[in-house]
Each structure stands twice: as C-alpha cells, then as structure tokens.
Specification:
This protein has 314 residues and is of the alpha/beta class. The chain is built from 14 helices and 14 strands. The strands form three sheets. Strands 1, 2, 3, 4, 12, 13 and 14 form a seven-stranded mixed beta sheet that branches. Strand 10 and strand 11 form a beta hairpin.
Amino acid sequence: MRVSLGIMISVALLAPSTAMAQTSLEGPLVVFNAGSLAKPFNDLLQEFKRRHPEVKPAQENSGSLEAARKLTELGKIPDLIGVADYGVISKILIPEHAGWYATFARNAMVLIYTDESIGAGEINGQNWWQVLLRPGVRAGRSEPTLDPNGYRTLMAFQLAERFYRQPGLARRLEHALGPRYVRPKEADLTALVQAGELDYSWSYLSIARTAGLRHVDLPKEIDLSDPNLAEWYGQARVRLPGASRAGSDSVEFRGEPILYALSIPRRAPHPQTAREFVRFIFSPAGKGILEKNGFLVLENPLLGGPDRPPQDLF
C-alpha cells in the first residue's frame, strides 16, 4: 500500500494540474469563419479567452468559399477555419491545405422578413414562391461563388420546382431576385431586411432566431435540413466557376443536408491553441453556446479527409 501511494504521489507531482494546463495557452488564435458563424464563434472565442486570458483571438468573417480562397489564393493561413458546408473543405482545401474536417452542426434554409414586408401577413411555407414573384417585392440572396447560402438558394429553387411541380420555377425565381440585392454573404442581408430595404432574404434558421426576425419555415423537401431526404436533395446541383483546387476551373456542389464543419489547416501558425479551441467547441459548454445561437448541434461529429485528426479533440 505504501508503494502504491508513493507512486501515486510521484505521478501527481510530475503531471501538470488541470488548472495549470488551462492557463498555459498564450498568444494569437486566428479564426476564419462563415458569416453565419460570426456571432456563435465570437461567443465561443470570448468564453475561450475567459478561460485562457493570455490567448488573443482574431476573427475574420466572410462567406465560406471566400474564407477558403484566403488560403488557396492569398496564402493567408489561420489557426482554424469554420465553414457552412463541409464540402468547401473537402472539395477545395483537401489535401493541400487541410488533411481532415469534422462536422459539428446542422441548419435550415429560411426566408427572413419583418412585419413591414410586402405579403408579411399571408406568406407561408406553401405560397412563398408566389409572394416572391409579385411585382415590387424586394428579395435578396448571397453570392454563390463566395457563400454556400448563395448556392443553396439556387438549390432550393430547383427543389421547389420539383416539389411544387412548376416547370421553369427555378429560373423565374432566380430572375425575380436579380443582381441588385446580391451580397457576399447571407449575414450582410440581415441588416437590409431589418432596415426595411429588403422585404425578404434567403438566410439560415440560426440567423433568424438570433436576430429575432420572422421567417418562413419551408417544407423539409426544400430547406436542406433533413438527413433522411439526402437522396431527394441530391437532385439539385450548382456548378461554380473558379472555386475549385488548382488545375480545375470549376467545382460542382450537389444538394445535401446542411452540415457545418471545421478544420485546423496543415500550416496553422498556432496548432496547439487551435486544438484546445476545437476541444472547447465540442465540449458541453461549447455545444451549449452553439445551441443558444440557434444551431442544431450534432451528437457526434462526422470526420472526413485523408488524415486522422487527433483522437482527443472530440
């Protein structure tokens, strides 16, 4: 018994305490994230800094595709990248700029609006497309080549055409929106709706909830939220020019249930801090922050890519 106790004491003296481990992190933590992750990741970073006061978070918000291009075209390497579509990592960053990804949350496509929007008193999940096609209705969407919400909007149009059995509906809806109210990311459009400059905007359920805006709950066959409808969603496809890896001039995205993902790039400047931040995101406290921001948090992450991430991250 004395020998065992001595061993236990020796191990305790040699191993760093949890408190010490929590205060050992310091320096920058650079995060590139999707626009719809701006608030939740800011909340996560602020809580992470509270736990590790010497860490200096730096957050850059943009469309997910634009964030990826910062790595592939500008050579700007963050410590962590979080995107609104895991396909941005798997199709654009892997294998040169990232070796793995982990999904962490789901979302749903919605139309956000206010009480002053044209048709606000009657729009619903069945007649929304008729309201958007009315003369004078101002509706916005994000740029597909920069932001997944943009190409998901086009997918929603394709799925609506099939679901409502309205030939040509996708083209009519795209034409009705026009280029005037296209912005780099869906989060840019929220302020326009709030200010009354737009009647409707294509967005995510999480943004509608955190912004306190009214929203149209679309049929599951259209909102890209239901894992059980993956085959149905796959009928929608959008090809984007100039968005793929070097050597190819375009990349195709197929309709899929919305899955957010993150990764630590291969040449991350501060990988240890990034790993601790990932651990925090997947902790009960981190998941709670995501849920508070309107996300549907995954019970277990889905992992992809040629490399195996550290097993203790999740």
